[in-house]
């Protein structure tokens, strides 16, 4: 009997039921799109925020920061510790290897050009690195420092490539050097002619330096196979209380907390693993970059949560208004049902089933529309479609039915409490 009445009710008031489905559809499409975006936004935003630069710095244990090294005037490399270039592949051999976006080794020092002291920096621009299980892997400053702007060409790298260098734009303005010029770089008994391939604007100390392939700097400084520091760009998750406790005192964590921290992509966890992978290294997160990533991602996800709740509330109120008018139009039908012996819960169950079926239909259509909307948002914001997690589908279907049920509860409860004589005679 109940199912026959349900089928008959769907045959009437198709316009109002269509409006209810559309209301749920609009809410479900927005909610499914926002859920899909919020699930994938962390990874996408983290990749976008890599434009801030590397968030991890690897140096020899006990070595001063690179700028302090450059400030030394007399034999700045004497007594310094170095890292082995041969250990660079170890960076991609940690637990969170897939979160390593890229890295760039650095070796700096001082040479003379026309009897004038000039600082140089050797690094990778886009250099192949032999990584197990990752054939054709290339990394360097193009990956780690995408904000670097080069007027002209990037230097060629490789054994058979002609020696080339970039000139920082501040140094170029001071010396008058330009693309195409040939410079004779001297250090002790070593002289290397290099051609200026372009002018570099980085916004950092590189603007006052000659920036060249690492192999050339190693030759000039007499340090084959050595580097002073390594910039690493890694995808991380925002810090929480556990990460902050680990950063302050790792030994204070118990075994369970340590395992959770180690197996979570915190910047401190990745830094710890890198320190284990490279001998004699001290790894320091660049907290200005790491913290900004977490703050931005947290605020975006909070904004999405607020919009989702607003969509839920608006759709529930819309359904409630629509169902109120629909139920009031069926007041005499309800009164007749009660006069024939129908109980209150049976009447309410009929309306709840109608609402749930409308919510299910609108939710299913909303999931399809939300999938397309999430893809469009990804293309517009990140030039790549977002991944649609299928866990969103059951969540949205449940939410859509809840929206319809909540919107139906108030008017159904009100009308079901009336006496048959009040409904039938309009009192």
From TrEMBL:
Transmembrane segments: 302-328, 349-373, 388-410
First-tier enzyme category under EC: hydrolase
Domain named ABC3 transporter permease C-terminal: residues: 306-420
Subcellular location: Cell membrane
EC number: 3.6.3.-
Keywords: ATP-binding, Cell membrane, Hydrolase, Membrane, Nucleotide-binding, Transmembrane, Transmembrane helix
Gene Ontology CC terms: plasma membrane
Major subcellular site: membrane
Family according to the record: Belongs to the ABC-4 integral membrane protein family.
PANTHER family from the UniProt entry: ABC TRANSPORTER PERMEASE YTRF, MEMBRANE COMPONENT OF TRANSPORTER-RELATED
Name of this chain's protein: Macrolide export ATP-binding/permease protein MacB
Organism encoding this protein: Citrobacter amalonaticus
């Amino acid at each position: 009997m109940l199912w026959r009445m349900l089928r008959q009710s769907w045959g009437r008031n198709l316009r109002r039921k269509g409006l209810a489905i559309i209301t749920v559809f609009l809410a479900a499409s927005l909610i499914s799109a926002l859920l899909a975006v919020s699930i994938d936004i962390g990874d996408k935003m983290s990749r976008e925020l890599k434009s801030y630069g590397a968030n991890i710095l690897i140096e020899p244990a006990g070595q001063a920061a690179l700028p302090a090294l450059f400030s030394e005037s007399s034999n700045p490399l004497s007594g310094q510790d170095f890292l082995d270039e041969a250990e660079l592949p170890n960076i991609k051999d940690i637990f969170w290897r897939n979160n390593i976006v890229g890295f760039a080794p650095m070796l700096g020092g001082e040479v003379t050009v026309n009897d004038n002291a000039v600082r140089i920096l050797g690094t990778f621009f886009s250099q192949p690195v032999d990584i197990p299980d990752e054939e054709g892997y290339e990394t360097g400053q193009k990956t780690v420092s995408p904000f670097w702007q080069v007027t002209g060409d990037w230097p060629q790298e490789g054994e058979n490539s002609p020696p080339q260098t970039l000139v920082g734009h501040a140094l170029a303005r001071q010396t008058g050097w330009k693309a195409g010029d040939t410079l004779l770089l001297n250090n002790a008994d070593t002289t290397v002619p290099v051609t200026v391939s372009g002018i570099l604007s980085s916004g950092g100390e590189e603007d006052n330096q000659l920036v060249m392939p690492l192999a050339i700097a190693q030759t000039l400084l007499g340090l084959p196979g050595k580097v002073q520091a390594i910039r690493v760009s890694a995808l991380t998750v925002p810090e929480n209380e556990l990460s902050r406790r680990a950063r302050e005192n790792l030994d204070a964590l118990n075994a369970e907390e340590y395992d959770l921290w180690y197996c979570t992509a915190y910047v401190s966890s990745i830094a710890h693993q890198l320190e284990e992978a490279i001998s004699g290294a001290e790894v320091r997160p660049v907290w200005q970059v790491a913290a900004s990533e977490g703050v931005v991602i947290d605020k975006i996800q909070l904004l999405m949560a607020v919009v989702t709740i607003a969509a839920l509330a608006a759709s529930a109120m819309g359904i409630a208004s629509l169902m109120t008018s629909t139920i009031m139009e069926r007041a005499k039908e309800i009164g007749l049902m009660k006069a024939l012996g129908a109980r209150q819960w049976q009447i309410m169950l009929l309306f709840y089933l109608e609402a749930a079926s409308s919510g299910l239909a609108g939710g299913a259509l909303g999931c399809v529309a939300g999938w397309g909307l999430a893809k469009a948002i990804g293309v517009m914001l990140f030039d790549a479609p977002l991944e649609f997690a299928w866990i969103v589908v059951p969540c949205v279907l449940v939410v859509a039915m809840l929206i319809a049920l909540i919107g139906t509860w108030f008017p159904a409860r009100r009308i079901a409490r009336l006496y048959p004589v009040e409904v039938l005679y309009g009192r």
